[in-house]
Design brief:
Strand content of chain A: under 5%
Number of helices of chain A: 8
Oligomer: homodimer
Helix content of chain A: 55-70%
Distance between the termini of chain A: 22 Å
Radius of gyration of chain A: 18 Å
Order of helices and strands of chain A: HHHHHHHH
CATH superfamily of the domain at 64-193 in chain A: Tetracycline Repressor, domain 2
CATH class of the domain at 64-193 in chain A: Mainly Alpha
CATH architecture of the domain at 64-193 in chain A: Orthogonal Bundle
Largest sheet of chain A: none
DNA sequence: CAAAAATTTTAATGTTAATTAAAATAATCC
DNA sequence: GGATTATTTTAATTAACATTAAAATTTTTG
């Protein structure tokens, strides 16, 4: 998830660009964001962006790829860390939220998937589907191992993913609130999952 | 919520237009939707839309106003119907979901609030905030009356609203699934709210 | 330090879709 | 049915950005 130590200047600058673009898209909307806006955040000229990306469509695509990759990383980590289904579910949400309100910082909300060109769109949709399936698998495993109350995993997945994806709509970088969000949001989202009959009611720290 | 009986041809056509626009925006994204696309769905020419709306920005604004109004209606109805906080919370989600996957739908997902002109943007943001506060008030009342487990009402509200607002991202008008969504989604979203110590565990029908 | 490669800028150009005005058609009203 | 009003179309026009090519600058490398 972190940048490799030998990241080239190109990769670093490109990542800066994607973060700047995500900031703009989330703050000003897609149509409200010109390449000039993104470039300006970086102290560059709009034309300079074309050194990193073929066109605006690809900029969006890269932003979404980055967002998807961060989510995938969170889920992977959760799967490695959590002892049972419930823990994995909780930890996934927690890690993903930490990323979204943290320094990896702004993650682009995927509003404009439909206006990507076909190949890119299919790519993102495929990754998205895989991610959703991954979460549903966590839920299923938790139901199996008794840590999660039986539920409609598809709908539960939709609900949790929706809530996470929507975060950039109401969180705008306030550092004090970030702490609050990391603390509370994952708990709120997974509270309904916990198998009632379990002995412990303590939340994972 | 329903159209008044004496709705003029103008009002009817305008409402059709807003629904067509919502369909396009949700399906093709904002930037992927031209006025021609919207007009085409109605069997009209792009220029005809200007009879109903000053420009594209206002079309978006009207779509969002409509979406907000439908949400407000759902909450109002829930407040009139529910016997306690939990019921009101559940019913609100249920009514809102019914609208979003039902005949009133498609409801435009509010992705492009930031690119609205200032007055319109503030207008929508104000209504949105009011709506969120309304839901938080329901939660608080439920905590008060003992029907809802104490929780961070702000975060819980953010979670529930996010999940609802995201629905158009994964629901695309499949009638069979609509039934499933109405059945399951509200239950999933409110399951975590219910006060554990309550005698009844049956869901409201 | 000089040459080569990488990055950015300047200055046009192009394209797409929004917008407008005037004309044409359709609906309504007396 | 004829006049009036409401709605839609045709046919330009515009403007905002995205995009491009070539030149300039900066960075790296031997």
């Amino acid at each position: 998830m972190a940048m490799p130590a030998e990241a080239t200047r190109f990769q670093l600058q490109r990542d800066r660009m994607l973060r700047a673009a995500a900031t703009c898209f989330n703050r000003k909307g897609y149509s409200g964001t010109s390449l000039k806006d993104v470039a300006h955040q970086l102290g560059l000229t709009d034309a300079a962006l074309y050194y990193y990306v073929r066109n605006k469509e690809e900029l969006v695509y890269q932003c979404y790829l980055r967002a998807a990759e961060l989510g995938r990383g969170a889920m992977e980590l959760a799967n490695e860390t959590g002892a049972n289904g419930f823990e994995r579910a909780y930890l996934y949400v927690r890690y993903h939220v930490e990323i979204m309100v943290g320094d990896a910082g702004p993650v682009a909300i995927m509003s404009e998937i439909p206006s990507l060109k076909t190949a890119h769109r299919n790519d993102i949709l495929k990754i998205s589907r895989q991610h959703s399936l991954g979460f549903e698998a966590i839920l299923s495993s938790g139901i199996q191992d008794g840590s999660i109350e039986p539920c409609d995993v598809r709908m539960t997945g939709n609900a949790v993913m929706g809530a996470i994806n929507w975060i950039p709509k109401w969180f705008h970088g306030d550092a004090a609130m970030a702490k609050q969000v990391i603390e509370k949001f994952p708990e709120v989202l997974t509270r309904g999952l916990k198998r009632a009959s379990n002995f412990s009611s303590g939340q994972i720290e």
